[in-house]
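Consider the tokenized backbone below.
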């Protein structure tokens, strides 16, 4: 027994001799004030902007926050969680890191919140990698010009407002006009195109997002899509970080040289959440009570969408931000800000929507500043006149409604415009393959529809697709494989349309 005591004493002596004291320096503060998702903290003199801090509550729970305000005697932070659990005097510790989210293949097919937690009931996100939510956008030298099309499957967009991979194309319009529908159809159309998709729901109703996710699953689109959800009932702090978290997920695939499509639905709610945070942090309000840096809020986000040069991997992020207008006012503060940052806009018009033209895309006010360079040559050649004809038709229709006499040429333009309007109508969740688009655009532009009754144009279109699929499927494959429209292919298209028209008549 004595021997065992001696051994214990000897071991203790060795441990004491080998002990090396380690000094751990921590910058610790305490909560001065908390409420409405905002906390004021004293003692964090070394804290940096956008740094993560940890609130240690009296209940033993850890709640995280992000520093936004650096003041003389205190810091202002947003709380990422339930701020009611934090009390005055609670201990606050610096984390010495920027907020990050899980990235990688493990997030594909999942619905997660902006902090990277699963909200789809399928268990924890299985991802070992993470990325910071704030990142400096690639510089000019790292970028390449946008030259590859991103097909949306929506006839009105692919023909008149084409989108390229790496472009930022704004979808703008009043509420309930189909902005989200365009974005979801574009995601569905990426099936088989080797494009990863990220859908960021900013301040949306959870029931609406549940419906969207079920539609994406129904069409097999969740196999390559991640949904980041900041719900309408979530605090403003969560809504504020949602688009940055979504962009970080997209950037993982960008850095691997892949193509990504990201949808921000919508940035109007994002700006409102940031305004709420800024006012609670007592930052000086500017126009419409938005803070002075509200432009930078969106510019630093949208500039992260780009097409990288081959030297830097050749990947791309295509961004489709959505903005909601009030009574069609595109000159309001946030719409003008985002219009100036993006490379064009798809404008949805309420008058067109109520007339039954869906998607209600106004060709006159919509523009793509780079899409023409990225548009397939075959589509450009066939549909080149359509944008002009659509604009002319709207002008003539507005002029002739006063009952003035119409000459033969004007009547022909109006008739062509009416058929064009019918062709551009498209059901939701039914994106159209580019080869079929080329055939119907060719038929329209070359007068094959001029003697088809307006009410039967869509029946003609549907029948034409079925006829070509059954009798000349090689034409569809040829259109897909060829970059341009040569004489041989044009003759084949003419023969196919002519043969169908003879059976239709």
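A designed sequence for it:
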């Amino acid at each position: 027994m004595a021997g065992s005591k001696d051994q214990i004493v000897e071991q203790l002596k060795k441990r004491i001799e080998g002990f090396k004291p380690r000094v751990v320096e921590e910058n610790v503060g305490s909560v001065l004030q908390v409420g409405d998702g905002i906390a004021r903290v004293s003692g964090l003199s070394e804290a940096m902007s956008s740094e993560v801090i940890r609130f240690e509550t009296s209940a033993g729970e850890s709640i995280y926050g992000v520093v936004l305000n650096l003041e003389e005697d205190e810091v202002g932070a947003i709380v990422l969680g339930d701020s009611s659990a934090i009390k005055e005097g609670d201990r606050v510790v610096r984390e010495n890191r920027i907020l990050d989210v899980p990235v990688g293949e493990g997030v594909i097919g999942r619905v997660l919140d902006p902090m990277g937690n699963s909200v789809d009931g399928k268990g924890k996100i299985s991802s070992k990698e993470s990325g910071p939510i704030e990142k400096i956008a690639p510089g000019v030298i790292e970028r390449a010009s946008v030259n590859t099309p991103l097909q949306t499957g929506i006839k009105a967009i692919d023909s008149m407002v084409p989108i390229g991979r790496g472009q930022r194309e704004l979808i703008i319009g009043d509420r309930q006009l189909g902005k989200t529908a365009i974005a979801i159809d574009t995601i569905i159309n990426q099936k088989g195109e080797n494009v990863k998709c990220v859908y960021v729901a900013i301040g949306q109703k959870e029931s609406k997002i549940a419906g969207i996710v079920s539609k994406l699953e129904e069409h097999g689109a969740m196999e390559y899509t991640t949904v980041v959800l900041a719900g309408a009932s979530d605090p403003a702090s969560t809504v504020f970080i949602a688009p940055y978290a979504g962009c970080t997920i997209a950037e993982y695939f960008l850095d691997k040289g892949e193509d990504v499509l990201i949808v921000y639905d919508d940035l109007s709610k994002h700006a409102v959440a940031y305004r709420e945070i800024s006012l609670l942090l007592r930052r000086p309000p500017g126009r419409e009570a938005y803070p002075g840096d509200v432009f930078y809020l969106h510019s630093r986000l949208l500039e992260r969408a780009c097409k990288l040069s081959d030297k830097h991997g050749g990947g791309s992020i295509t961004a489709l931000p959505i903005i909601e207008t009030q009574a069609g006012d595109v000159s309001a503060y946030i719409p003008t800000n985002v219009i100036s940052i993006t490379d064009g806009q798809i404008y949805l018009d309420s008058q067109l929507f109520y007339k039954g033209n869906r998607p209600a895309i106004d060709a006159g006010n919509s523009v793509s500043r780079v899409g023409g360079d990225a548009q397939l040559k075959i589509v450009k050649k066939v549909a080149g006149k359509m944008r002009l004809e659509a604009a002319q038709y709207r002008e003539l229709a507005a002029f002739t409604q006063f009952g003035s006499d119409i000459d033969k040429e004007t009547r022909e333009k109006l008739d062509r415009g009416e058929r064009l309007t019918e062709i551009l109508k498209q059901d939701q969740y039914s994106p159209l393959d580019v080869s079929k688009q080329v055939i119907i655009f060719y038929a329209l532009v070359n007068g094959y529809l001029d003697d088809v009754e307006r009410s039967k144009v869509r029946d003609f279109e549907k029948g034409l697709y079925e006829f070509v699929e059954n009798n000349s499927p090689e034409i569809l494959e040829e259109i897909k494989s060829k970059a341009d429209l040569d004489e041989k292919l044009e003759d084949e298209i003419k023969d196919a349309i002519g043969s169908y028209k003879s059976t239709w008549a």
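The longest strand covers residues 195-204.
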